[in-house]
Amino acid sequence: MSKYKYVLFDLDGTVSESAGGIRRSLEYAIKEMNKPVPNLDDYTLYIGPPLIDTFRNLCHFSEEESLVGTEIYRGFYNTKGKYENRLYDGIKDVLVSLKSKDIKIAVCSSKYEKFAEEIADILGVSEYFDAICGSNLDGSRKDKKDLIPYAVKSLGGDIETDRDKTVMLGDTYFDARGARLCSVDFIGVEYGYGSINAMKEEGAKVFAKTPEDILSLINKP
């Protein structure tokens, strides 16, 4: 019997192997703006952070350039990049098992919400999620500290009264930080793109080496 009523999954690096499509979309947007493409070998630099922050911090774009880059990225990602997503082996079994229990499940991603919905469809797992929660088109609700309360509310709960019944799963510092700021439990996944040490610096103590480990950790009293 799990102590959790609400289980929130990050998308990129937790449910979906998505690096290829994200990288291609980012490269395309930068080149379209006639800017030099930085070294993108380190996925932790741009998988996890909100997209507009990637243009600001990794590409050193101005605010206006970052907004333009975001629009170009989304256009390419919508037609090509999103189709490169692949489901991590074992994740579907985790979702099926949770769905069979009295547990509500949501995607909780900084990705634009419409894209998150479409990716869940592409991966064939939409039916297992009770809600798919992401950011707005204008870039608002992009931080996990804002997304987590929104996701809990979308599942029929209230973050103020359901903190101890909520767990966030993710692979990055941003997921761990959001969980800490919202005072909910966090399970870091080691198979994703993020840094384990960075998650630990945000207070993460519980980790799943594989998708199969998630169930035992969620069911742990």
Overview of the structural elements:
By secondary structure, the protein is of the alpha/beta class. It has helices at 19-32, 51-57, 63-79, 91-99, 113-123, 144-154, 159-162, 173-182, 196-201, 211-219, and strands spanning 6-9, 16-17, 86-87, 104-112, 131-135, 166-170, 185-189, 207-208. The strands form two sheets. It has a six-stranded parallel sheet, with helices on both faces. A two-stranded antiparallel ribbon has the order 2-3. Helix 8 links the parallel strand 6 and strand 7 (185-189). It is globular, with a radius of gyration of 17 Å. It starts with 5 loop residues before the first strand and ends with a helix. The mean pLDDT is 94.
Q: Tell me the helix content.
A: 40-55%
**Oligomeric description of these chains:** single chain
Sequence of strands across the biggest β-sheet: 5-4-1-6-7-8
Mean pLDDT: 94
The helix/strand series, from N terminus to C terminus, equals: EEHHHEHEHEHHEHEHEH
For the biggest sheet, the summary is:
6 strands, parallel
Task: Tally the beta strands.
Answer: 8
- Alpha-carbon distance between the two ends: 7 Å
Strand content: 15-25%
- pLDDT under 50 segments (min length 5)? none
- Gross geometry: globular
Radius of gyration: 17 Å
Helix and strand content put the structural class at alpha/beta
Helix tally equals 10
